[in-house]
Every structure is written in C-alpha cells, then in structure tokens.
Write a structure and sequence with these properties.
mainly alpha; 0% strand
C-alpha cells in the first residue's frame, strides 16, 4: 500500500511539473506573439516617420526584450528626431552593446553631440565610426566639417 501511494505521489508530481512547463511555454508563445505584433506596429510607425508614436511602441518592446539592438537603434533614432539627444545617445550606446549597426550608432552619437555643440565628443564618435567602417561617407564628411570648426575663434578639438 505504501508503494502505491508513493507511485501516485510521483505521478502527480510529474504531471504537475509538466503542466507548469506547458504554462511557461504558452506564456513564452504569447510573449513572442505580442512582441511580433508590437514590432510590426512600431516599425510601421517608424517607417511612416511618426517618431513619437514609434518611440512609445519601441519602449513597450524593450520592456519585453531588453536585448534587442535593432529596437534600441530605432528608438535612438526616434529620440533624436524629437530632440531628445541624451536619451538618443543612451539608446545608440545600447545598440552598440548588442552589436547592431555599430558604425552608424557611433555616427549618430556624434550627431547628437554636434547638435549639443560638444564638438570634441562629436569628432571622437565620428572617428569611432570611421575606425569601424573607413568607407562611412557621412562620418568622413562630418569629421571634416567638425575639424573645420576648430579654425573658428574659441573652438578647439584638443
């Protein structure tokens, strides 16, 4: 009799474990579906240049998956477009952290610093973009532009 109770206990434990794992799989599936829906919506808004609305959707995505470099990059772009340079820079740094469009992310950080008139940092980040991609045409042009600013009174890149 004791063996039968033990076997029943083991069976119930195994079934309970299976049900728990099934719930986890179902939750993951629901999260994945929600994530795909949010991404579709956010990318549509982004491509339509509705940057404030896209930023909100991208933020929801990052609440589910905070390791998506592409989402950080797009949100960084949105923040730049709505003049949130500091937030934009943080997002581009996260895009770099997750290996997404690293040269372009450095370039965009440079633009953010240039917009804030912090030319030494802008120059630094344009140079970082060029180190990664020597053919980055925009980074080369902006580097030369910022370098030219040092000839203006009161500006240096030292």
């Amino acid at each position: 009799m004791m063996k039968v109770k033990f076997v029943i206990f083991i069976c119930i434990s195994l079934l309970s474990s299976c049900v728990s794992k099934e719930k986890q799989v179902l939750k993951h599936s629901q999260d994945s579906t929600e994530l795909l829906t949010l991404k579709s919506s956010a990318y549509e808004l982004f491509n339509s240049k509705k940057y404030l609305e896209a930023k909100k959707q991208l933020t929801l995505i990052l609440a589910i998956d905070s390791t998506d470099g592409e989402v950080f990059y797009k949100r960084g772009f949105c923040n730049a477009k709505i003049s949130k340079c500091i937030d934009s820079t943080k997002d581009f740094q996260n895009a770099i952290k997750y290996d997404y469009r690293i040269d372009d992310a450095y370039f965009n950080i440079g633009i953010n610093y240039e917009r804030q008139m912090v030319f030494t940092k802008a120059f630094y980040y344009y140079q970082k973009a060029l180190e990664i991609n020597p053919n980055h045409t925009k980074a080369r042009i902006f580097t030369e532009y910022v370098r030219g600013l040092q000839d203006m009174p009161g500006n240096t890149l030292n």
